[in-house]
C-alpha cells in the first residue's frame, strides 16, 4: 500500500519532485560522462599493447624500481631513470645467443616540434618501424627520419645531448603512433648515448633468465610493454588522475545538492505526512513511503541521467582532445560499468539524501505533524548538527595539519582541492543555524524603513529558515567553490612568482626552444661569451627518516660559486660555499641539521652518502636540495641562469642561435614557468569548476522554482490582504535577493577559512604571501547566480499568480 501511496504522491505532486528529479538526473549524467571517458582512457592505456618490442622474444632491462633501505627493511620505489645495463651483465646474456642493444636518447631535427628521440637502427626490426624509402643507416653521418620530415639525400641538422650535428637522410621510416624517432647506425648511437637502456635477447628465454640471475628484469609477452616509451601511457594516466579529481568534486556537489533538494522536498510535503499520520500510518510506514518516493524519483532520474551521460561523454572527449591531453584519435564509447554504477549511485544518493528527513517525518506524532506542517520549530536536525560540527572539526584539523606539518600539499592545487571543499561543506550543513543572524545582519540597514516590504521579506526568511537555507545552499556551493578554487590557485601562483623574483638574481635565462633540455654545445657557447652560468642538472631521489618514512625529493647538481651569483638561496644554517663533492644543502623539509648524514637513493639506482653542509628554507618551487656539479652526469638541464652583469643579451642570442635554445628575460621566464607549472592544475580546476558551476547554477534554478511553487498559497493570502500582484512579486524578488546575499556571505566565510589556512601554509614556504582572488570572475559567478535565482523565482511565482483564482487581478 505504501508503494501505491508513493506512486500517487509523486504523480500528483510532480512539481515538488521536479527539482529533485532534475538535480539527480544531472548528477548521474555528469558522473556517467566522466565514468565513460575514464573507462575509455583506462582501456586505451591498457590496450596500447607492446610497441617498440612487438616481435622481440625477450627484453632485458634494469629494474624499474630502486631499493630504499629503512629501519623497517628494504622498500622498492619507482625509478624514473633506470640505470644502464653494465657490460658484465650484457656479456652473460650474449653468451646465451644473439643480443641487440637498445639506446634511447634525445635527438631532434632542428626546427621540428619537441618530443623526438633517437635509437640505433638495429632495434627498429622489433617494432612497426619499416622503411618507406631509402636504406638503413650505415655510417656515422647517416640518419633515418620519419616520412614527411625530409627528403632522401638532404642534409639535416640534428640536436642531441652533445649539441648540433649535420646528417644525411638515407632513409624514411613509416610513422609509428607511439613516438617520433630518428635512427642512427649502431656505432653512432653508441657514441651519442653510451648507456645501454635495454637488450633484446634472441637466445632461449630460460637460458637468458638464468644468465641474468635476478640482476635485471627479463620481460616477455605482455610484460614487454614496460620497456616501451611511456609518453602515451603517462598521458592517459594523467587524464585518469584529472578526471578522477573532477569526478570526485562533481560527485561531492551532486551528493550535496541532491541531498539538500530531497530534504527540501520532504519538508514541503509535511502536510501530506501529517495527514498520513492522522489516518493511522505508523512511523515505519511513513518512512517507507518517503523512501519509496525517493526510490521512484531516483530510478527514473538515473535512467535519464544515463542518456545525458552518453550524450555528454563526446563533449568531454572533445575538450580533452582540444587541450591536447589525449590523442586526436581518442574517443569514448558505451561502457557497461559506468552505465550500471552511475544510476546505482544516483539511487543510493537519493535514498541516503532522504533518509534523515524520512526518519524525522516518521517520528512525529499526528498533532505535532500538523503543527510542523505550518511552523518550522527545529530547522536543524540532530544528524545535521552532528555532521556539520564533525565537518567543522575535520576542516580545522586538516587545514591545520597541512599548514603546520605538510605545507607542500598546499602547492599542489589538484590535491588541495579536496581540502578546500571541507569548509564549504561545513558552512552548507550549518546554514540553517547561521541563516537567521545573517538575515538580521543583512537586513539591518532596512530596519528603519517605513515600508512593509522589508519587514515581510525578513520575517518570511527567518520564519521559514529551512526554506531559506535550502535555497541559499546552491548559491553557497556555486560562489564558494568558484572563490575558493580560483583564489587558491591564484594565490599559489602569485606566491610562487613572488618567491622566484626573490630567489632568481639572473636577468637572462637560457631555456630550451622546441627541445626537452639544453645540450652541452649551448652551455659551452654561452660560457664562451664570458657569462657566469648556473645550469642545474635535475634529478630526484628517495630518503628515509629515523622512523622509516620514505620521502621523495627533487635535487639539483650545481656549481655553488656560480649559484651564489645567479640565485639568492635562503640558507638558514651552514653555508652554500661549503658544498663540495661529498656535501649536500637540504631544505627544511628534510628535518636534518648541519653535520648530519644523508643517504640518498637516486632514481637511477645510485646511492649517495653525503653530509649536510647547509640547510635552506623550503620553497614552493625549485629543488629540495643542492649537490655538487660532480654529480650532474647526463641528467637533463632545463635552464641556464646567467649571473647579472656577466653577459650581453645580443651575444647570448648569437651564441644559442640554431641550437634549440633561446634567451628569455627574468620577467618573461618567471611568467612562463608559472603558466607551465600550473597548466595541469589549471586544466583540472577548469574541468572541475566548469562542471560544478553549471550543475550548481541549474540546482539554483531548480531550488528557486521549488520554493516559489510551494508559496502559491502564501502569495494568494498576501493578495487577499490587499497586496497588488506587483507587490507580491516584489516580495518574492526581495526574499530571493536576500537568499542570494546570504549564500554569498556564507561562501565568503568559507573562503576566508580556506584562504587563511592556505596563507599560513604558504607563509611557511615563502615570504610576502598575498591572498589573490580574481574578483571580476568571482563577481561574474555571483552575478550569474543572482540572475538565475531571480529569474527562476519571479517567473515561477508570476506563472502561479496568473493560474490561481485566489489571487484576484
TrEMBL record:
InterPro entries: ABC3_permease_C (IPR003838), Macrolide_Exporter_MacB (IPR050250). Keywords: Cell membrane, Membrane, Transmembrane, Transmembrane helix. It is found in: Cell membrane. The chain crosses the membrane at residues 239-269, 290-320, 340-362, 383-403, 415-439, 475-497, 682-707, 728-753, 773-799. Residues 247-364, 688-797 form the ABC3 transporter permease C-terminal domain. It is a multi-pass membrane protein. Belongs to the ABC-4 integral membrane protein family. PANTHER family: ABC TRANSPORTER PERMEASE YTRF, MEMBRANE COMPONENT OF TRANSPORTER-RELATED. This is FtsX-like permease family protein. It comes from Amycolatopsis albidoflavus.
Amino acid at each position: 500500500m505504501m508503494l501505491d501511496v508513493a506512486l500517487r504522491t509523486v504523480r500528483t505532486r510532480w512539481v515538488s519532485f521536479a527539482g529533485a528529479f532534475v538535480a539527480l538526473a544531472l548528477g548521474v549524467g555528469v558522473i556517467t560522462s566522466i565514468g565513460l571517458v575514464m573507462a575509455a582512457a583506462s582501456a586505451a592505456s591498457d590496450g596500447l599493447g607492446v610497441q617498440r618490442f612487438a616481435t622481440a622474444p625477450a627484453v632485458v632491462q634494469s629494474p624499474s624500481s630502486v631499493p630504499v633501505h629503512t629501519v623497517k627493511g628494504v622498500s622498492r620505489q619507482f625509478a624514473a631513470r633506470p640505470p644502464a645495463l653494465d657490460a658484465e651483465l650484457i656479456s652473460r646474456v650474449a653468451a646465451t645467443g644473439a643480443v641487440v642493444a637498445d639506446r634511447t636518447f634525445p635527438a631532434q631535427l632542428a626546427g621540428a616540434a619537441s618530443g623526438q628521440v633517437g635509437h640505433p637502427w638495429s632495434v627498429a626490426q622489433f617494432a612497426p618501424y619499416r622503411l618507406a624509402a631509402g636504406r638503413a643507416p650505415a655510417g656515422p653521418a647517416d640518419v633515418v627520419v620519419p616520412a614527411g620530415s625530409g627528403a632522401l639525400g638532404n642534409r639535416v641538422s640534428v640536436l642531441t645531448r652533445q649539441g648540433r650535428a649535420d646528417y644525411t637522410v638515407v632513409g624514411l621510416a613509416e610513422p609509428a603512433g607511439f613516438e617520433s624517432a630518428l635512427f642512427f647506425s649502431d656505432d653512432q648511437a653508441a657514441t651519442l648515448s653510451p648507456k645501454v637502456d635495454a637488450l633484446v635477447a634472441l637466445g632461449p628465454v630460460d637460458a637468458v633468465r638464468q644468465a641474468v640471475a635476478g640482476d635485471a628484469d627479463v620481460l616477455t609477452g605482455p610484460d614487454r610493454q614496460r620497456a616501451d616509451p611511456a609518453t602515451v601511457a603517462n598521458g592517459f594516466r594523467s587524464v585518469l588522475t584529472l578526471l578522477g579529481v573532477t569526478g570526485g568534486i562533481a560527485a561531492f556537489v551532486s551528493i550535496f545538492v541532491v541531498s539538500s533538494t530531497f530534504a527540501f522536498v520532504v519538508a514541503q510535503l509535511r502536510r501530506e505526512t501529517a495527514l498520513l499520520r492522522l489516518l493511522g500510518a505508523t512511523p515505519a510506514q511513513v518512512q517507507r513511503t518517503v523512501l519509496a518516493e525517493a526510490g521512484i524519483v531516483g530510478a527514473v532520474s538515473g535512467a535519464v541521467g544515463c542518456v545525458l551521460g552518453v550524450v555528454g561523454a563526446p563533449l568531454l572527449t572533445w575538450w580533452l582532445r582540444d587541450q591536447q591531453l589525449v590523442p586526436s584519435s581518442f574517443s569514448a564509447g558505451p561502457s557497461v560499468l559506468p552505465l550500471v554504477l552511475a544510476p546505482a549511485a544516483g539511487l543510493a544518493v537519493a535514498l541516503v539524501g532522504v533518509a534523515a528527513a524520512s526518519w524525522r517525518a516518521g517520528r512525529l506524532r499526528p498533532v505535532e505533524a500538523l503543527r510542523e506542517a505550518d511552523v518550522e520549530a527545529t530547522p536543524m536536525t540532530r544528524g545535521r548538527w552532528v555532521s556539520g560540527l564533525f565537518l567543522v572539526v575535520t576542516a580545522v584539523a586538516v587545514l591545520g595539519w597541512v599548514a603546520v606539518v605538510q605545507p607542500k600539499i598546499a602547492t599542489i592545487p589538484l590535491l588541495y582541492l579536496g581540502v578546500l571543499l571541507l569548509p564549504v561543506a561545513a558552512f552548507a550543513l550549518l546554514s540553517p543555524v547561521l541563516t537567521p543572524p545573517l538575515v538580521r545582519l543583512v537586513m539591518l540597514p532596512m530596519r528603519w524603513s517605513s515600508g512593509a516590504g522589508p519587514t515581510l521579506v525578513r520575517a518570511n526568511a527567518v520564519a521559514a529558515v529551512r526554506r531559506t537555507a535550502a535555497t541559499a545552499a546552491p548559491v553557497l556551493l556555486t560562489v564558494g567553490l568558484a572563490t575558493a578554487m580560483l583564489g587558491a590557485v591564484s594565490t599559489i601562483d602569485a606566491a610562487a612568482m613572488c618567491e622566484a623574483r626573490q630567489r632568481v638574481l639572473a636577468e637572462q635565462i637560457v631555456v630550451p626552444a622546441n627541445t626537452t633540455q639544453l645540450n652541452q654545445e649551448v652551455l659551452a657557447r654561452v660560457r664562451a661569451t664570458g657569462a657566469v652560468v648556473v645550469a642545474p642538472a635535475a634529478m630526484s631521489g628517495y630518503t628515509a627518516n629515523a622512523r622509516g618514512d620514505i620521502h621523495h625529493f627533487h635535487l639539483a647538481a650545481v656549481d655553488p660559486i656560480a649559484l651564489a651569483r645567479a640565485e639568492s638561496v635562503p640558507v638558514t644554517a651552514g653555508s652554500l660555499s661549503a658544498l663540495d663533492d661529498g656535501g649536500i644543502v637540504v631544505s627544511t623539509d628534510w628535518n636534518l641539521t648541519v653535520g648530519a648524514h644523508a643517504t640518498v637513493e637516486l632514481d637511477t639506482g645510485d646511492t649517495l652518502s653525503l653530509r649536510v653542509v647547509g640547510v635552506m628554507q623550503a620553497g614552493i618551487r625549485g629543488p629540495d636540495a643542492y649537490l655538487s656539479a660532480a654529480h650532474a652526469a647526463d641528467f637533463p638541464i632545463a635552464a641556464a641562469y646567467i649571473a647579472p652583469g656577466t653577459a650581453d643579451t645580443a651575444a647570448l642570442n648569437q651564441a644559442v642561435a640554431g641550437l634549440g635554445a633561446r634567451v628569455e628575460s627574468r620577467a618573461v621566464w618567471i611568467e612562463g614557468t608559472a603558466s607551465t607549472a600550473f597548466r595541469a592544475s589549471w586544466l583540472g580546476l577548469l574541468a572541475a569548476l566548469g562542471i560544478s558551476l553549471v550543475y550548481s547554477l541549474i540546482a539554483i534554478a531548480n531550488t528557486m522554482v521549488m520554493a516559489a511553487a510551494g508559496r502559491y498559497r502564501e502569495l494568494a493570502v498576501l493578495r487577499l490582504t490587499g497586496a497588488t500582484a506587483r507587490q507580491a512579486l516584489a516580495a518574492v524578488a526581495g526574499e530571493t535577493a536576500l537568499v542570494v546575499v546570504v549564500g554569498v556571505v556564507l561562501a565568503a566565510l568559507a573562503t576566508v577559512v580556506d584562504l587563511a589556512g592556505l596563507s599560513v601554509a604558504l607563509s611557511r614556504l615563502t615570504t610576502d604571501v598575498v591572498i589573490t582572488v580574481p574578483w571580476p570572475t568571482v563577481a561574474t559567478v555571483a552575478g550569474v547566480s543572482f540572475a538565475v535565482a531571480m529569474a527562476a523565482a519571479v517567473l515561477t511565482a508570476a506563472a502561479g499568480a496568473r493560474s490561481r483564482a485566489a489571487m484576484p487581478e
